[in-house]
């Protein structure tokens, strides 16, 4: 029911397609936008215009940036570590950057192998990864600890055999600040096996 | 940490100010936008541009629309009922329209009286309401059932005395589909007192 005319209705429908927003919260968001037209709606409109103009995928690693190669790939200080972190998604890359993991480079697969969903090796960025693997001393497979993620990690490990790079994965264990009581048994037993001396 | 350049970072910060979105979900929303540039980001950018251009507040009732007086105030079929529904917010007006309450008109207060927050009668649209009250036979105070809402309803009822219009409020009771067990005592006792014959 369009109480605010087609422009408003269309804005609600588009915002409702963002993750985390449904029809109801999109409606509240649009009301907020209209109420704060000067402080919020006009700046957001301008920011979107600029982003549409500027944002592109990095042709080397798959990161999202305003330049290609992206600012991470183009950063010469990141060449020294010789470490390439392979992630499923740009969101994972950003999460690692926020964690301040250091002067590393990344490779975004853009998905995981999933035979059931018809996602094969040619559907994600594996060939590009194999093509640049020789530039690195260590390749960290930071894929999610899901069945598909682990399948993908196994497949990549096989394909990287003979590349000369050491292939590693993230440690499993108790999250910092996490309570043991709420952890699954798999994580707990892995955390015990990988215990370290204090 | 700006992993995607200043354009992306600014977009995240603006989206994070929408109700229902925080920094984390704003980041996910921006990633979704960038991934679906053609299907989502460009249409959303265009829809926002159009809305910035077109959207205004109705000078009569305070509704948000692309014309003023708004399509509801301008609708001649809504003159017959003689009913004016007073709401706190445009969201409430939209909710009532979605509920299909019929050919009524609205008045958006744009807030409620709240002495603690320094919101007095001159800060919300009460004078405008008094100015148009004589056009209606019945004025329904559909303000929220909060302390501030009820204070506002009392104040408006006092000011409307002598206007000739009947002043009513929404019924309290059990929400349709609601379970008694989860209802507060106040609602339950009001629902019992206002019981109707089957």
UniProtKB/TrEMBL annotation, chains A, B:
A zinc finger (C4-type) spans 58-73. Keywords: DNA damage, DNA recombination, DNA repair, Metal-binding, Zinc, Zinc-finger. Belongs to the RecR family. It holds the Pfam family RecR_ZnF. May play a role in DNA repair. It seems to be involved in an RecBC-independent recombinational process of DNA repair. It may act with RecF and RecO. This is Recombination protein RecR. PANTHER family: RECOMBINATION PROTEIN RECR. Residues 82-175 form the Toprim domain. Gene3D superfamilies: 3.40.1360.10, 6.10.250.240, RecR Domain 1.
